[in-house]
Amino acid sequence: MAAMGWLTPRRRSATARSVLAGEAAAEAARKTSQQLEAERETAARAEAATPEKPAEPEFPVVGDSEAAAFFDLDNTVMQGAAIFHFGRGLYKRKFFQRRELARFAWQQAWFRLAGVEDPEHMQDARDSALSIVKGHRVSELMSIGEEIYDEYMADRIWPGTRALAQAHLDAGQKVWLVTAAPVETATIIARRLGLTGALGTVAESVDGVYTGKLVGEPLHGPAKAEAVRALAAAEGLDLNRCAAYSDSHNDIPMLSLVGHPYAINPDTKLRKHAKAREWRLRDYRTGRKAAKVGIPAAAGVGALAGGTAAAVALHRRRR
Q1: Active-site hit among 74, 247, 251, 267
Q2: What is the mean pLDDT of residues 63-74?
Q3: Which residue in 26, 135, 288, 310 is deepest, having the highest Cβ count within 10 Å?
Q4: In this model, does residue 4 exceed pLDDT 60?
């Protein structure tokens, strides 16, 4: 039990040790307190001497009723081009023949491989679509468009861009799609995503039946900027407080209109333009090659392979 003797209280020696321990602890506490106080004073002086970094302004600004957001559709909100997906759905419903589907596949494969819009392909696609829908009722195509969205478009929405649009909606702002796709198709997509509405190419109709002609021209390039300008005037928006999002250099006129332009999955020309002007960039494509040319990885491989195979077969037949 000798080893446990230190636990046994001893009146005189224990008291002396207690006094000594208490005095030592008090002295240590005073020194520690002084050191901590000195450290706090030094830190406070350093913080006061360091200029504060300007806080990142909140964006989107909650409750700003004079601000809105404008989103391009093809390859910005959705992988690929809406008009091509719509064409696939119409072919499935026997609106046109296999040779026309092959042309759609070739154009879609080019769009996905190059990551940019080819004006001739886009014009050809629009002309084909107009000839296909001529004589059909608008209500019929709207109903079919709902089905086509579920079949070919719903799984191709970029989650990152969708989140950006939702941030504007959560801030109480209106969000519009702005696209060269038919306004009926764009409206379906906007409604399914919970957006405010859509600006799109208007096809002429008489008594609810498509005539095969356009009203004006396709909503592309400068026409998009004019549509946004007109809508902003009608809605009482301040374009300097608005945001616009696109993947294509063709939309630089629209992006340049607003105070908050974003390059989303940008093509080479838009990326260069955006960096030179310090616009914000977001790229939701995966893989090194995808970042360069816009080839969708993983989710898009199957569709790309099918479209490319059809395109190659068509090219061989032509040769």
Answers
A1: 74
A2: 95
A3: 310
A4: no
